[in-house]
Description:
The protein is mainly beta. It has helices at 179-182, 201-204; strands at residues 4-5, 15-20, 26-32, 48-54, 62-64, 75-78, 81-84, 93-96, 104-108, 112-113, 126-130, 139-141, 165-167, 171-176, 185-190, 195-198, 215-216.
Amino acid sequence: MAQVCQPMFRVIGLNSFWKWFYDGSTVVLVGAPKADSKYSTSVKSPGAVFKCRVHTNPDRRCTELDMARGKNRGTPCGKTCREDRTDEWMGVSLARQPKADGRVLACAHRWKNIYYETDHILPHGFCYIIPSNLQTKGRTLIPCYEEYKKKYGEEHGSCQAGISGFFTEELVVMGAPGSFYWAGTVKVLNLTDNTYFKLNDEVIMNRRYTYLAFLIF
């Protein structure tokens, strides 16, 4: 069961957890939200997730994971979607599916849709499901993107999905504290039937500036 909270204070920092591999080795995954990425050298400080081996790492070096993100500003991401990953804060939240071959959820809540940038820049947020072997060919999630919705603040225009996250065997849970003028909501993807669930909009839309789902655990 996930607990969804409103913020009492804000702490910015790294996110990390352990992951065990079948060959007996152990790694720790570390989120570095302000890092540059060797896979996106043209993007300023998009953040990254690093894999660090434990016990068999005498040089204490870590390797950045390739999450197949776009390399250029304005890369298409939907009919009315063009991405801007500058300062997107990848790795601000990490969550692991609780099973032996569990996948990993990594998010960047400051990812922006700039399709309507002459009117509004929309910080939808972006998440990526990393396969259990930590290789490429994962799954991209932009849970707050809706075609032709372009106003900042209204509905999910500024939702910042992924500032917090939680993973069960079947569900991907992403906090979206900026929805409905920062009333906040939760975006939930059911991996079994590939459908999204959400909280009742009518219940939360009149609770502006409460930042629901800033933290999920």
